[in-house]
Amino acid sequence: MADFRSDAFVFFGATGDLAHKQIFPSLQALIRDEGLNLPIIGVAKAGWNLDQLKARAKDSLEKHGGLDSMAFDKLMGLLRYVDGDYNDPNTFAQLRKELAQAKQPLHYLAIPPSLFGTVAEGLAKAGCAQNARVVVEKPFGRDLASAQGLNRILREYFPEERIFRIDHFLGKEPVQNILYTRFANPIFEPIWNRNYVRSIQITMAEKFGVEDRGKLYDDTGTVRDVVQNHLLQVLAHLTMDPPTGEDHDAVRDQKAALLKALRPLAPADVVRGQYKGYRTVAGVAAASAVETFVAVRVFIETWRWAGVPFYIRTGKCLPITATEVRVTLKSPPLGVFDAGDAMPCNYFRFRLSPEVVIGAGALVKRSGEEMHGEPVELIARHHTQSDKSPYERLLGDAVRGDGALFTHGDAVEAAWRVVDPVLQHPLPVVQYDPGTWGPPDAKAVIEDGDGWHDPKAEASSPC
User: Fold this and answer.
1) Does residue 213 lie in a domain region?
2) Is residue 151 part of a domain?
3) 390-403 pLDDT, tens per residue?
4) How far is 85 from 180, CA to CA, in rounded Å?
5) Which of these, 30, 84, 151, 327, could form a disulfide with 36 (CB 3.0-4.6 Å)?
């Protein structure tokens, strides 16, 4: 199917928090940076009028990113508003009038997943779904069964190629940089397999706790919040086969194939933790068994990666805030130098946040007469000139019909299939002290003799 550019932008939940923090700033940026020029129609049930929505947009921009006078004036001229209940056909009839001559609208459902079916059906019955795209926010389900149900609902009204499942994490520059670094530099591909890679670790650490998200987090937990989506996507970027061709689906197809090859988690692969003091946070159940930390061991059942362990660790109230990948290579088959010495392995380190760094750990000869070595790290720091936000990038792609950074339905279900066993039969949580690297039990997940690699506050630690 040929791509086409959307000729109207509709966002449901226009008076909500996501619109206030992300959508209005992204729309202004798209107008300023890319000349976005199409009707922008907000839909909500708030008892508001257009002037109130415009005031909300102005407040949004003043608090999140700043108001650009020229782009803001253009946004105000493009903005429309429909107020009504999503269960009322008149709401969608009014939307159809506001769409006027638009024939290829983009509908952004910034609403709870429980309303996806209601809105999708209303769009279809009002003639607003034909030749349209739909963007839906995560969480896309709570488990495998609910994700499959949501996919069935959306596919009843929209073909898969016009469903854009948005995850802002995939719009971040450092995450995209993993793919570019791998496939733009031929030095990686010959060794990017089980013959040379001993293990891969992914750590996403947050120094802060759940803060004011207690009630929401206690209904979600770390596995649902970041493992099933963000970190399995990072794993897919690291390990997928090269995409073939320039079609928008080329990358998505390879990621989906990789996620389908992941072995579902077993109890021995998982340690769940909860930081001390979590249960006193407002909105958290007094006897909550929800995890704020998880460490998992994953295997990919392909020829490229058979037998290589992948370790994922993430949590709150850890020593620092950082996201880092460490790819450890195997030792040489025979120690020509330093025989009998336990020298560290070569590795690659990808720091995704807060700074973007690529490091390569190697051994060099130590000064002196004897042939003994010492570890060093070669560091490349990437200073991006782009200040484009993930939502600006992703919404611009959706308007253009570029689905490369969005998640295919099969990939969503494959990711849920990996974590579903531990969601259906969760292990007990182990308490850990804030400011530590989680419960000591997490060490049991690691089969690698080096143990967990702890990211440092400064992105310059040696091997």
Assistant:
1) yes
2) no
3) 899 999 999 999 88
4) 44
5) 30
Q: How many domains does the chain have?
A: 2
The CATH number linked to 266 is 3.30.360.10
Q: How many Cα atoms are found within 13 Å in the side-chain-facing hemisphere of 396?
A: 19
pLDDT at 145: 95
Per the structure, the complete domain to which residue 314 belongs is given by 170-445
Residue 131 CB partners (closer than 8 Å, separation 6+): 4, 103, 104
Q: pLDDT, tens digit, for every residue of 304-327? A: 999 999 999 999 999 999 999 999
Tokens of 57: 């947009």
Q: What integer pLDDT is reported at residue 463 of this predicted model?
A: 34
Strand bridging mode 347-353 / 133-137: unpaired
Give the residue-averaged pLDDT of 183-207.
95
Cis omega before residue 139 (within 30°)? yes
Nearest to 41 by CA among 132, 125, 116, 157: 132
Q: How far is CA 332 from CA 87, 187, 309, in A?
A: 65, 18, 19
The sheet carrying 40-44 orders its strands as: 79-83, 40-44, 8-12, 105-109, 133-137, 163-166
Cis bond before residue 333 (omega within 30° of 0): no
Catalytic residues: 230
Same domain, 218 and 353: yes
CATH number of the domain within which 108 lies = 3.40.50.720
